[in-house]
Every structure is written in C-alpha cells, then in structure tokens.
Write a structure and sequence with these properties.
The complex is a heterodimer of chains A (269) and B (110). Chain A is 48% helix and 17% strand. In chain A, the strands form two sheets. Chain A has a five-stranded antiparallel beta sheet with strand order 3-2-7-1-8. A three-stranded antiparallel beta sheet of chain A has the order 4-5-6, with helices on one face. Chain A folds into two domains: 76 residues; 124 residues, Protein of unknown function DUF881 (Alpha-Beta Plaits, 2-Layer Sandwich), CATH 3.30.70. Chain B is an all-alpha fold. Chain B has one domain. In chain B, helix 2 packs parallel to helix 4 and helix 3 runs antiparallel to helix 4. Classes of the chains: A alpha+beta (269), B mainly alpha (110).
C-alpha cells in the first residue's frame, strides 16, 4: 500500500508524520507466537515505567528549581537592601563632608587645623614621634632593703600614675606605657598583681615613653616625681631609670572610646 | 488487554521504584515519553483497525525513541537542542493527533 506524497514540502512532512505504520506493513496473518507477545508486553511495561519515571522526575525536579529560585530572590533582596543602606550612608557622609568643607572655608576655619592637630595629639588619635624621655621602672630584686616584704617591693599603679603625672607636668605631649598610648580616658589600675592600662595588663619592666620638649628628661629630673622615685628606690628598692632620647615613639591609641561626640547644632562651638 | 496490564504493571513498577533520573537524561526523557505515547496511540488504533502487529509495534517504538533521542542529542551538540526537541515533539504530536483522530472516528463513527 503506497501513498501518493504531495509535492509541497510542508504537506509532505505532515503526510509522512501522520502515516500509519501498521497500514504500510503487509501483515502476516496469525503470527502470534508467545515470544513476540512477551516482547510486546515487555515494551508496554517499559513504556509504563517511562511514564512513571518522567512524572516522578518532574515532581522532584520542580521543587528543587523553586527552592533555588527562592534562594536567588532572597539573595537579590538582601543585596538590594545592603546597597540601599550603603547609598543612604553615602548620602549622609556626603552631607557631613560638605558641612565640614563649609566649616573649613568659613571664618571658623582660622587656626582650625592647628586646633584639630592639638586635639588629635591629646586624644591619642594620631601616633607621635619626636624627642622626649623614657622612664623605666622595675620591681625590686633581692637583696631587699631591711624590713621590706617581697610583696611590698613591687611597682604599683600609683607609682606609675605618679610618674605619668610628673611627665605631664614636665611638658610631655604624648605618653605611652609599654606601647599603650595614654589618652584622656585611659585608666592605670591594679588588678591582682598586674598593672592594667586601658584594661590591658602590663608586663614588667614598665617603659614609660614620653614625647615632648628636648629637655624633658632634665625637667623631670628636677620634679617632685623624680624625688618620689628616689624615695621608692631607697625605701623599697624599686629600680627606675630616666633617659632622654632624640626619638621617642608614642603610637596612636587603639582603645575604643566608650562615647562618641557629635557636633551640636546651632553653632555653639 | 494484556497490553493494558503490561502498561499498568510498568506504571506501578515506576511508582514503586521511583527511579532517580540522571541529570544527563533530563533532555531525553520528555522526548522518549512523547515517542512512547505515539507508539501506544498507534497500537490502540491498529488494534481497533484489526491490523495490529507485534513486530511493527516493537520496532516502531524502539526506532522512534532511538531516532528522537539521537536527534535531540545531535541538536545538543550543535547548540540547537531546544529547537530540535521542539521539532521532534511537533512531529510526534502530529502522529498522536492523527492516531487519536482515527480512533475517534472508529469509536464514535464521527
């Protein structure tokens, strides 16, 4: 049984696609052997299995794709939010920059740079290197003076405080104890047997570096603090040494200030 | 009748085993399903026509599935995998439609 195929390509494709396979084959009558039957049935089983597998695949793949989609949406949302926050921060910063620029160009800016530097040094915001003096203190070593218990022969927080105050008095600009910069809110305290500066324990020897005038060591030598140091040496055997130096370094403070100041609105400087 | 039972057995087997289809087969399973549908509709039509043949059924099914998957694979290699599966699905769907129309005509005489 031959079909007449149309000339038109599209029609031909359709005609061939729709051709009935069974009609084109000469059917051998009554060839229903057991073997061909079983093959047919197994092909049907295969087809059913294929259907079930395909539907199963669709059901399992779909939620996964949805999950991934949702995750992407979440990520986009998060990125958008952080971008918005950063934009807001940028706007705020730009406003404060322009405010500061105005401040610098207006009359208030006279001597402002020097003031700012002085504040930065005083607050430990910047590190400082320059001439100055170094005071080194250390616990007493045996033999101890008569009648002194080993417990008493140690450097105390008040001793360090005394030396620091003496240095400030002698004209020091910046002081660091064992490389911890002192600021206006730095505490020098004792906790147990250790001396804490900014809540960080110090290890002896205590090296107190002060940046200041070139004659700082000499000024300190004539101060009450030096007299007290001499007294400590005599009474308790506590060792101390004051040396002048051309380059003393006080690093910038790394402590987190507990408070944050804001400029008052309304020009009340 | 025995074909229907085979089909149901296959579906039950598939549901019970719930096989995990490997990722590389993702593109071929839908095409194979359409080819299977075509074979089943063709078998149903020929049964109603009274000229069903085991040999034609088995050979046409396996042949169509093989050619369809091969075409999709070739399309994938050429970068036109999606279009190729569309073409295969269209041709097979036309066959299914023709078979369904013939079955309809025979069953409803309309």
């Amino acid at each position: 049984m031959k079909q007449h195929l149309p000339e038109n390509l599209l029609d031909r494709i359709i005609a061939e696609a729709q051709a009935d396979d069974y009609a084109l084959v000469d059917k051998p009558a009554g060839s229903r052997s057991l073997r061909s039957m079983s093959v047919t049935v197994s092909v049907f089983v295969l087809i059913g299995f294929l259907f079930a597998a395909a539907s199963w695949q669709r059901q399992t793949v779909q939620p996964e794709a949805q999950d991934r989609r949702q995750e992407l949406i979440d990520r986009i949302d998060r990125a958008t939010q952080s971008a918005e926050a950063e934009q807001a921060a940028a706007v705020e910063l730009r406003a404060s920059v322009s405010q500061l620029q105005q401040l610098a160009t207006s009359g208030l800016g006279e001597g402002f740079a020097e003031q700012l530097q002085a504040v930065q040094i005083a607050s430990g915001f910047v590190g400082l290197t320059g001439p100055g003096a170094t005071v080194t203190m250390q616990d007493a070593v045996p033999p101890l003076p008569k009648g002194v218990q080993p417990d008493e022969a140690r450097v105390l927080d008040i001793d360090v405080q005394m030396v620091v105050n003496g240095l400030w008095q002698s004209g020091a600009q910046a002081i660091a104890i064992n490389d911890i910069r002192l600021t206006s809110v730095t505490a020098i305290r004792t906790a147990g047997e250790a001396i804490l500066v900014d809540y960080r324990p110090l290890e002896p020897p205590y090296v107190i570096a002060a940046v200041g005038p070139a004659d700082l060591a000499d000024t300190f030598a004539g101060s009450d603090a030096q007299a007290e140091l001499d007294q400590l040496r005599r009474d308790y055997g506590i060792q101390s040494e004051v040396t002048g130096a051309d380059t003393v370094t006080a690093p910038a403070s790394t402590a987190n200030l507990p408070t944050r100041a804001d400029v008052l609105k309304g020009g009340q400087q | 009748m025995i074909a229907l039972i085979g089909l149901i057995v296959g579906i039950v087997l598939g549901v019970v085993l719930s096989p995990e289809v490997p990722t590389w087969m993702d593109a071929y399973v839908p095409v194979a399903v359409i080819a299977a549908l075509d074979a089943v509709s063709g078998a149903l039509r020929s049964m109603l026509d009274g000229n069903f043949s085991d040999k034609v059924f088995v050979v046409s099914f396996l042949g169509n599935v093989a050619v369809a998957c091969a075409l999709v694979w070739l399309g994938d290699q050429l970068g036109v995998g999606a279009q190729m599966s569309t073409g295969v699905v269209v041709v097979l769907a036309m066959r299914i439609f023709a078979n369904a129309a013939a079955i309809r005509r025979m069953v409803f005489k309309a």
